[in-house]
Amino acid sequence: MSTFLIYKLALVLAVFGITLLVAMYSTYLERKVAAFMQDRVGPDRAGPFGILQPLADGVKMFMKEEIIPNVSNKFLFIVGPCIAMITAIMAGVVIPWGNTITIGGETYTLQIADINIGILYVFGVVSIGVYGIMIGGWASNNKYSLLGAIRASAQMISYELAMGLSIIALIMLTGTLSLREIALMQGGGVGSDWNMWNVVYQPVGFLMFIICAFAECNRMPFDLPESETELVGGYHTEYSSMKLGFYLFAEYINMFTSSALMATLYFGGFNFPFQNDLGLDPNLVTILGTVAFFLKIGFFIFFFMWVRWTLPRFRYDQLMNLGWKILIPLAIANVAITGLVKILVK
Amino acid sequence: MASTDILNTPSDVEKGYSTLNLGPTHPATHGIFQNVLTMDGEVIVKSEPTIGYIHRAFEKLAERRPFYQITPITDRMNYCSSPINNIGWHMTVEKLIGADIPKRVQYLRVIIMELARISDHLICNTVIGVDTGALTGFVYLFQFRELIYEIYEEICGARLTTNIGRIGGFERDFSPKAWAKIDKFLKEYPDALKEFEKLVMRNRIFMDRTIGAGPISAERALSYSFSGPNLRAAGVDYDVRVMNPYSSYEDFDFIVPVGTNGDTYDRFMVRQEEMWQSLSIIRQAIEKLPEGPHHAEVPEFYLPPKQEVYNNMEALIYHFKIVMGETDVPKGEVYHCVEGGNGELGFYLISDGGRTPFRLHLRRPCFIYYQAYPEMIQGTNISDAILTMSSMNVIAGELDA
Questions:
Q1: Can you name the CATH fold of B58-400?
Q2: Which of A40, A310, A312 sits opposite B209 (nearest CB)?
Q3: In this protein, which residues make up the domain named NADH-quinone oxidoreductase subunit D (chain B) (predicted)?
């Protein structure tokens, strides 16, 4: 029992640390990717190739003067970024980072909690994340913040619907809500138990999911809540110091989590092709699987950035049109077609 | 300040309207503008622009300055294309004193002015991209404005506030280095511009955002006395370079692009096409460039070269008179206009024969566009309002003068 606890504690700490590290280096990667796309150099002063830049930014964030507007609701003003940060980190709990590792006869799963409603849990936690933005935007007592907060909540609520519907089709296919089981289903070798990644069965669902993921993360082209040229800074206009850092950080963590989700749900999670045909040690396969998983996540994070530095952003009404008039009907049609195909194939 | 009488009236409060201060320091108001918007949710019910944040009394300043000292003032109007302002002012004075400008000077001026037009349109169009959220095009094309600035630097030594040329011509002919830089720009820019067009022009999101945003009809535009790309986007083919050619513009073949709807997308497209036309004009000018002096024979106004001043009595006298601002000009009244970066830039000059203008009125296109702005954004939302502002290329320095 105690080994189990120690192991879980270690895993929690590891996941926590890795999440923060990835989010931190996403900021660096974002700036480098942007620089690459814009024919610039990007950060290159702190350390070789500027790899210490995120640390410098972190120190800067902590050292900055903390300004809480007099007219704001102080308690909620502080609670806002905390909620955003906490919910962002919490979503990583159910992500299966890898398959099992066997050490000394004991089998350890590389997942903090394999709850059987994993997907619902993620949705629930992400929905609470909206409160962080809403509360923060409202508590600032600034009209730009309020507009940003209203946009954020409207956007997230409408895109969560489409996201949920796109997932339903996938769940119909897999028959489980547990992320680990979904990941395992996409594994297997070329031989007897060959299973394709879900994206092959659900291409439309995946497209809708990735669009909604962009909207949920407030990333371009859906970054209306913080569109700097319209609303100054959106919901975090009045924030400074590490509270601003929390909001920005939460965005990157959300990006990381949704990349992990996309990889798990549609791109085979910790599975990689031919994993059972190479005749490797199971532990080694698990480790390679985790590496493959992070490569997939890395690709999606890069994709997020690629899109951000290429596309313009929507207008508010166009965003709503896309969500309600295109994505939701499409998602419902996807569910219907999936069901129909399932019946016919059976 | 005007803002007191536009605060919500009781009936506005009952309707649930709110007031939003857009500016004076807002990331999307490129320059210092204030707009007090009455909003119904995100829809603009009415807006009240406030101007004068960087009013520097240029017209009054000009009444106390000798003619050649007014050129730096014109720099600070539309600072995205200051050479056009400078040369426009030089040409106004030359019209007053009746100077005969050599063909070479006119062609060189055309080259400079078209470069300035490119840099102006380049900034405007890429900033439309920034305001829709596409930052990459802006940063990418901005490198080419740098090339244009290097050309200015080679010709006159300055970059932003150029103070380029003199009354009567240029202080010196273009150096071989300047020609090399112009060649480099002409060679590299078209590819980058094409890339930018590929990135933005047919982008679905960009088109959805800009088509129908902040439109103005040709009638309204004319009644506001619009000019330049903003008028042409509304469908009126008025271009000072064609209607009232100056500086030998009649020698060049170019198309005046016009739009149909007068919305943000049309303004964007008109400017985009004008950049291509400007490139073609520059090429034609280089090809046809005649030999000759780089300045007119107007010794009372054209500062003589230093070695002449040291060795030649006449030159010393003129040098002294010009520098001390003692040159008198003929009495008269002239209006001269040039096609500026964003419209007809006019100089209305009255001289009473003294060393300074009696009165100088500047026809500043931005001042006119900004008056139409409240009408154009009524009933739209903030996103469109900001796009309208950036696509009209209202520049605070020119608005307030």
A1: Cytochrome-c3 Hydrogenase; chain B (1.10.645)
A2: A312
A3: 131-400
